[in-house]
Design brief:
Length: 353
């Protein structure tokens, strides 16, 4: 069990903490990787993203090795990209394979990044190619995609440090307030204690309500448990600098009070810093009921996006305040901050390492 009896501000990651390169991040949704070139800046590095002729997702340095022309503004040919400025061609490994005005190709090419497509996401390892280990990719929330229906969404760009977004995602106390008009959490939700545990460099947190009826607006209108007692458990997990997993689960109890298989949602968040003060934000919801209800998927996606818009709005305001205001300032802490404080300690120690 984690304890955070005292901590100094300098022990916590903040908007100025250096970014972490030796991790897998979500480079984009799988359907963003096509035979058209797309630019995305990740951890201050401009990448060009596309698929090769065999459908493999490719991520290369987006900067021509000759005079820095952006390759996403160039031409994707059979076998690679030809720079639009002076025509140098790179293969899918970033090696130079043609220089139109001379016979010999320089041996210096552009950097290639390791990618891995899993379900609706494409991951990229931002450290050295040789150090990439696919076993380090955070798991999807569900193992058998066929038993779950998923809805995905994204913010191509949002202003604000990914640390502020992680803190928001570790924070169950803002739900009834910032999301008062969208998620409409009842007051009882705020009063329920938050359980927090740290396991290595990860933090789990949740709270539980004894009666799910007050949360009904979150679920499919036809979901009905009759007179059965149903618990509502909501929480999340800070998994890695790139991932924060949330969930809202209904747990029916049988007559003896034993927990039955849960019904509900996993809400995964993928945070990909663009720079120290901006990110890309992808999300993924999986539910294990009303699997074929496409109208509901659309409605659920819109409801969730409306709520996340409020988080994105708040984080932009926080970032602007940090950058603009010159008051002497020291954050106060409240009990509910605990998961976020532990996450910030972890990220700070990773950055130090
Ligand atoms: S800048 Fe790309 S070939 Fe010259
Ligand atoms: Fe939120």
């Amino acid at each position: 069990m984690a304890t955070i009896k005292s901590y100094a501000a300098e022990d916590l990651a903040d908007i100025n903490t250096p970014l972490l390169y030796d991790y897998w991040y979500v480079a984009g949704l799988a359907d963003e990787f096509t035979r058209a070139l797309r630019e995305r800046t990740i951890l201050n590095r401009s990448l060009v993203l596309y698929r090769d002729e065999n459908g493999n997702p490719i991520a290369l340095q987006n900067r021509c090795a000759h005079r820095s022309f952006p390759l996403d503004q160039s031409t994707l040919e059979e076998g690679g990209i030809r720079c639009r400025y002076h025509g140098i061609k790179y293969n899918h490994d970033g090696k130079i394979i043609d220089v139109p005005c001379q016979d010999k190709c320089p041996r210096t090419g552009i950097k290639k990044y390791k990618t891995k497509e899993i379900g609706p996401l494409v991951w990229v390892w931002m450290g050295d190619y040789a150090d990439a280990d696919e076993a380090d990719i955070p798991e999807l929330p569900v193992h058998d995609m066929n038993k779950w229906t998923h809805v995905v969404g994204k913010y191509n760009y949002m202003e604000g440090s990914y640390i502020l977004l992680h803190e928001n995602l570790c924070d169950l106390s803002h739900l009834p307030f910032l999301h008062a008009s969208t998620f409409k959490f009842p007051k009882e939700y705020t009063a329920a204690p938050i359980r927090v545990e740290q396991h290595g460099n990860q933090v789990t947190f949740y709270r539980q309500l004894e009666d799910w009826n007050m949360l009904k607006p979150f679920f499919h209108p036809k979901l009905d448990f009759g007179n059965q007692k149903v618990l509502y458990k909501s929480g999340g997990k800070y998994v890695s600098p790139a991932t924060n997993k949330g969930y809202g689960l209904l747990i029916p109890l049988d007559e003896s009070g034993n927990e039955q298989p849960a019904v509900g949602h996993y809400v995964n968040h993928y945070l990909t810093p663009e720079s120290e003060r901006s990110c890309h934000y992808f999300w993924f919801i999986a539910r294990n009921y009303a699997l074929d209800d496409k109208d509901y998927s659309k409605k659920q996606g819109e409801m969730v996006q409306a709520g996340f818009d409020e988080d994105v709005y708040a984080i932009k305001l926080l970032q602007a305040m940090f950058e603009r205001d010159q008051h002497d300032y020291r954050e106060i802490g409240i009990k509910a901050d605990k998961p976020g404080v532990i996450m910030r300690k972890i990220v700070k120690s990773l950055a130090g390492a």
